[in-house]
């Protein structure tokens, strides 16, 4: 059935996948961003610890009220597609993810022993910067496929 350009929302039927908007209090929203976080000194730390980092980030998202729609690691960086409420800023989300994963990884003795050899006992895991790109509803499927095919 061809879309009817005289009806409201016909462009949505043609151009965008249907994604449900989230509702909270007196607002409806869909705020999504593509994030890339890089390991300190581009060390290939996500090859051995990628699964632990993914689990930690999923737990952090649940604890702080945002959703990680898609996530995949490469050897030295991680891609995330994050859906978050307007009460959080992207900077807050990045800080939470980087600080808490670093803290929890260094608390695990097996991982801490490995990290101390790679990072010279400097209690860090992530580089200082990050990449962030807001995405619209129109290309979230493309971004999800891109993230799935990392590594």
Keywords:
151 residues; Alpha-Beta Plaits; 5 helices; single chain; alpha+beta
Secondary structure class reads: alpha+beta
Query: Which CATH architecture would you pick?
Result: 2-Layer Sandwich
By DSSP (H or I, 4+ residues per run), the number of helices equals: 5
CATH superfamily: Transposase IS200-like
CATH class assignment:
Alpha Beta
Walk across the major sheet and give the strand order: 4-5-3-6
Main beta-sheet annotation: 4 strands, antiparallel
Can you walk me through this structure?
The chain has 151 residues and is of the alpha+beta class. The chain has one domain: Transposase IS200-like (Alpha-Beta Plaits). It has five helices and six strands, in the order H-E-E-E-H-E-E-H-H-E-H. The strands form two sheets. A four-stranded antiparallel sheet has the order 4-5-3-6, with helices on both faces. Strands 1-2 form a two-stranded antiparallel sheet. Strand 4 and strand 5 form a beta hairpin. Helix 2 crosses helix 3. The longest helix is centred in the middle third of the chain and has 19 residues. The radius of gyration is 18 Å and the shape is globular. The chain starts with 9 loop residues before the first helix and ends with a helix. The N terminus is likely disordered.
Which helices and strands, and how do they pair?
Blueprint: H1 10-15, E1 22-24, E2 27-29, E3 32-38, H2 46-64, E4 67-73, E5 77-83, H3 90-107, H4 109-118, E6 131-135, H5 140-148
Antiparallel strand pairs: 1-2, 3-5, 3-6, 4-5
Helix pairs in contact: 2-3
């Amino acid at each position: 059935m061809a879309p009817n350009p005289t009806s409201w929302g016909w462009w949505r039927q043609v151009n965008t996948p249907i994604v449900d908007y989230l509702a909270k209090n007196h607002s409806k929203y869909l705020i999504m961003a593509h994030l890339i976080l890089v390991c300190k000194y581009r060390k290939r730390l996500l090859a051995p610890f990628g699964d632990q980092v993914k689990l930690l980030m999923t737990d952090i998202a649940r604890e702080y009220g945002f959703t990680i729609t898609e996530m995949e690691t490469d050897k030295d960086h991680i891609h995330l597609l994050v859906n978050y409420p307007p009460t959080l800023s992207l900077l807050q989300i990045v800080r939470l993810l980087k600080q808490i994963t670093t803290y929890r990884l260094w608390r695990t003795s097996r991982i801490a022993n490995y990290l101390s050899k790679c990072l010279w006992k400097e209690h860090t895991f992530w580089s200082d910067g990050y990449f962030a790109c807001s995405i619209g509803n129109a290309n979230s499927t493309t971004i999800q496929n891109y993230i799935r095919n990392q590594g």
